[in-house]
């Protein structure tokens, strides 16, 4: 292992440990493919460019859910599945880890936005799970289907993961978090 690979491996183990403990011990959910998927989601979304990696054919970043759904309706096969999966990932990330960010300024019913995000995420994962792909696809359709069917539980589990990493960070002191690499 090169020194360049080591921080990601350390961070991957940190997230995997918290996710496994949260889902298996706290929630009683023993589903290794889901826990692995959520750990991978945390790793992928560390980089902000991953949040807005979907682009229109002209190269414009697709940042709104409506734009993503519209673009997905124009695509077929693997490309369509990938956009729906991204919508599911994006909504799960925000509702699970940062639900407070969904409170738009001036919005009278921030709970409505949260519920809408959950519904869009569930729908996107379920659609992605039904799109035929090659057998060598990295994420099995069954995993995407379970994410859609158990979206709220996964979001709740991610909130608990966040609480645990914040607790560990506060125990270590600012700048000393086990996942911060100098």
Short description:
This protein is an all-alpha fold and 182 residues long. The chain has 8 helices and no strands. Helix 1 (6-26) packs across helix 8.
Give the helices and strands as they follow along the chain: HHHHHHHH
Q: Estimate the mean pLDDT confidence.
A: 85
Spatial gap, N to C terminus = 18 Å
What class, by secondary structure content? mainly alpha
Task: Provide the descriptors you would attach to this structure in a database record.
66% helix; disordered C terminus; 182 residues; 8 helices
Model description:
α5 (about 75-95) runs antiparallel to α6 (about 110-130). This protein has one domain. The protein is globular, with a radius of gyration of 17 Å. Helix content is about 65%, strand content about 0%. The longest helix is centred in the C-terminal third of the chain and has 22 residues, at about 150-170. The chain has helices at about 5-25, 30-45, 50, 65-75, 75-95, 110-130, 140-150, 150-170. The chain has about 180 residues and is mainly alpha-helical. The model is unreliable at about 1-5 and about 175-180 (pLDDT under 50).
Write the layout of secondary structure elements.
Elements: H1 6-26, H2 32-44, H3 48-51, H4 65-74, H5 77-97, H6 110-130, H7 141-149, H8 151-172
Helix pairs in contact: 1-2, 1-8, 4-5, 5-6, 5-8, 6-7
